[in-house]
């Protein structure tokens, strides 16, 4: 099998379908907000929100994956309410710029906080799976649902996230070639480097995917996104992206973009004095990146 096929199996793509069970639309600060409820194949309810500009004209979209931050109560509320690592809530900002934005709640967070992360992860690992795999499988199903909507331009959907959401943003984009672009902040590093630096335990048990490092490091995984556009945002003072682990990963990802002849589609925002937080420079770069690769139908988006 190819690396992408191996990753699709590890990441449980197509193994966690979601079925829409409720959809309620309301007005929210001049935007259209849909309160969504999906059901897993096991009957668990999954809360979600879709925020979009008013009108019926099809628009580009962002699958926005929420963060962890040991704040299990936030979940999908990040879309409208933000979190400490963000400058301000990003959902309304994206929608005001002309994008539809979908966020669903990951298992162990928000209304799905029981069972918790540890119990869910251990149950999955004992069965040869991972909680990260369930999370990614559900995000893949959310992408499918989003792409099927008539008010969405299906070939102009990006994936975005910070921290946990960042990792899943580039993992999912690597496994799903229909994703047009990926932008991620504060979670891009080589895990072997994190292990050597003694920082790997800063990640939760949810992220443990057995055997992943025998297949590829994060730099190689992110390299599978090439030649599609990718934005990477890191801070040198972030313990999850220390320079030694970041630089190993970035050399691999940059090499993949060089081989694809697409170095102009790889954007790096590296902040020497920043920690595990979004910075004004990161936000400005994300907006410019999405406007360039999603808002227009130019050649920048093509493979």
Automatic annotation (TrEMBL):
InterPro entries: AB_hydrolase_fold (IPR029058), FrsA_esterase (IPR050261), Xaa-Pro-like_dom (IPR000383). One of its GO terms (molecular function) is carboxylic ester hydrolase activity. Transmembrane segments: none annotated. Keywords: Hydrolase. It comes from the Bacteria. Residues 43-194 form the Xaa-Pro dipeptidyl-peptidase-like domain. Pfam families: Peptidase_S15. The keyword Hydrolase applies. The keyword Iron does not apply. PANTHER family: DIENELACTONE HYDROLASE DOMAIN-CONTAINING PROTEIN-RELATED, POLYKETIDE TRANSFERASE AF380. This is Esterase. It comes from Martelella mediterranea DSM 17316.
